[in-house]
Amino acid sequence: QYNHNINHNLPLNLKYEKQYVGFATLPNQVHRKSVKKGFDFTLMVAGESGMGKSTLVNSLFLTDLYKDRKLLNAEERINQTVEIIKHTVDIEEKGVKLKLTIVDTPGFGDAVNNNECWKPITDYIDQQFEQYFRDESGLNRKNIQDNRVHCCLYFIPPFGHGCMKALHEKVNIIPLIAKADCLTPNEIKKLKDRIREEIDKFGIKVYQFPECDSDEDEEFKQLDKELKECTPFAVIGSNTVVEARGQRVRGRLYPWGIVEVENQSHCDFVKLRNMLIRSHMHDLKDVTCDVHYENYRAQCIQEMTSKLTQDNRMESPIPILSTPDVETEKLIKMKDEELKRMQEMLNKMQQQMHDKDQ
Amino acid sequence: MWTLQSCGSVLTLSINADLARPCTDLFGYVGIEAVLDQMRRKTIKAGLEFNIMVVGQSGLGKSTLVNTLFKSKVSRKSCTPNYEEKISKTVKLHSVSHVIEEKGVKMKLTVIDTPGFGDQINNDNCWEPIVKHVNEQYEKYLREELHINRKRRIPDSRVHCCIYFLPATGHRLRPIDVEFMKRLGKIVSIVPVIAKADTLTIEERQEFKEQIRQDLAANGIRVYPQKEYDEDPEERILNDRIRESIPFAVVGTDKEHQVNGNKVLGRKTKWGIIEVENVAHCEFANLRDLLIRSHLQDLKDVTHDIHYETYRVRRLNESNMNYSELGLSTWPLENKCESDSHL
């Protein structure tokens, strides 16, 4: 279980020992509220058809989201545009509720000419930002729904590369090497190196794991290091159970052997799952809110205010508070200072009169 | 279940596969409750800010109580030597911040004192500087929130809790109490306490509390925890119990004495030692539990989700901007949608 050592034991019992003030229970109070409210998470998957995206998503969340899917044949796909399809799933485990939204992008990279295939995706991401921006700027902010995309799993075919650059400043990208069971360990290593080089060379900003705290224990730091050195993750997914080494495992059965999805020497599925869900889900949301969304918002405001100055008819898109302008402020300051001087003179005069009386 | 939306060239098909059953026969465990751990770590790392205001006439033991609550000298008592006490003509607010740490959790505690409140012969409008201060903090936060380049964590100087000290007269609320709580109760969470309660017997205390509760109800004053903000039945039951026992009758001290071989915080008199943390003697422990151990986060949430939002709505309406009626043409994506061609 990816539950590193928190360096203190917080008793859940609120009847606390006397010598403490007791505000260290705050994380528990927050905890209780979160359990009641539950969490939400929006995950986008992008990659050509047949990369194993659906299988991987099902494997990650132990769901069966694509039961009734109909796969299109080549002819049908010639004129297909990139679609955006959302699936929502409610998962509950140990009393914690997660509302998971998977945003699928069928058609991505499938056409003959894929020059603009990323556009529907960036438009979708922007739409969610815009919706949130409107909600946040509105008057009733009680139940804002957060549909922003927190993470995009980008499937790189084992023999190719992709166009991540269009997305990298809008969403947290986690590149994955798909269908890694057709590569030998050496080939995987070479491919990972090549991808990392390309990412550096083209300045693609993929999701960066945050640095470890200095007070974390060694085991955690080691795990964290291994995680970072392992990217991009080479993954395999499976919805079927096979028997391997006397156990029932999730895997793929080939004549030459059995690939076990959860075997860390076979692929990085476990690392991906641990990272995505068990250790970095919250950080992915934070980076989306604090970085990607804020960038969008700042850009939006600037665009709109520049339009505003050009066209006086339009109303301001964000709340503007009535503030005194610079000129008025200057005037007020001057008057203040004048008043101060007069007051000082008065005090002096009073003092003099008082002294005289003595 | 199925909704079809179209915006320009993008067809969005939303399927609500509500409660798709996880393949538990493919055994496993996704591990989502680890998200709570992640949140907890972040909360602990970030530390917390808590701003508490104390209001009441001088001599009611405000500073002593705050020091007792937080087990540190966070507030300077006006009875210490060298304390320059000028009876000022107006209420001057006075903020002091301290960072206290406990079990790895850091808290930046700010105590806002209000010397001069209720101390004059004519106390008309003595609540005004306080109302002004509370609103100023909301205004500050609002401006930060509206900024183009916002801080990751907006510094929170909003008043999360206002402890109002009632002298232990044993009778009823005085006009100044009613006036203050009526006005402030609308913009901040008020927790009234009966100060220096060691002059009341248990029976007198019960009668006094009952009278106060009646007076509060009669004047339409809502103190924390407000009934209308209870989120679910479980919370309602918990808060009802609290509402039936407020205002808490408290005694504060920083002196320790020996009682039955234990060191206790207490006030020593000729007829006995009043143990501050003994629930049979006074309700200090209940107040501390409410404010810190169980409702600390809730106080902050109520301030943020309710009081602050109320202020914000009022300010936005004042500025004559109504965003729900914004013309769509000002939003960039709508423009793009209309003008761009299909893929």
Automatic annotation (TrEMBL), chain A:
It holds the Pfam family Septin. GO terms for cellular component: cytoplasm. The keyword Nucleotidyltransferase does not apply. GO terms for molecular function: GTP binding. It is found in: Cytoplasm. One of its GO terms (biological process) is cell division. Keywords: Cell cycle, Cell division, Cytoplasm, GTP-binding, Nucleotide-binding. Residues 37-303 form the Septin-type G domain. The record marks 159 as: Important for dimerization. Belongs to the TRAFAC class TrmE-Era-EngA-EngB-Septin-like GTPase superfamily. Septin GTPase family. This is Septin. The lineage of its organism: Eukaryota, Metazoa, Chordata, Craniata, Vertebrata.
TrEMBL record, chain B:
Pfam families: Septin. One of its GO terms (molecular function) is GTP binding. It is found in: Cytoplasm, Cytoskeleton. CDD domains: CDC_Septin. Keywords: Cell cycle, Cell division, Cytoplasm, Cytoskeleton, GTP-binding, Nucleotide-binding. It comes from the Eukaryota. Residues 46-318 form the Septin-type G domain. SUPFAM superfamilies: P-loop containing nucleoside triphosphate hydrolases. GO terms for cellular component: cytoskeleton. One of its GO terms (biological process) is cell division. Belongs to the TRAFAC class TrmE-Era-EngA-EngB-Septin-like GTPase superfamily. Septin GTPase family. PANTHER family: SEPTIN. This is Septin 12.
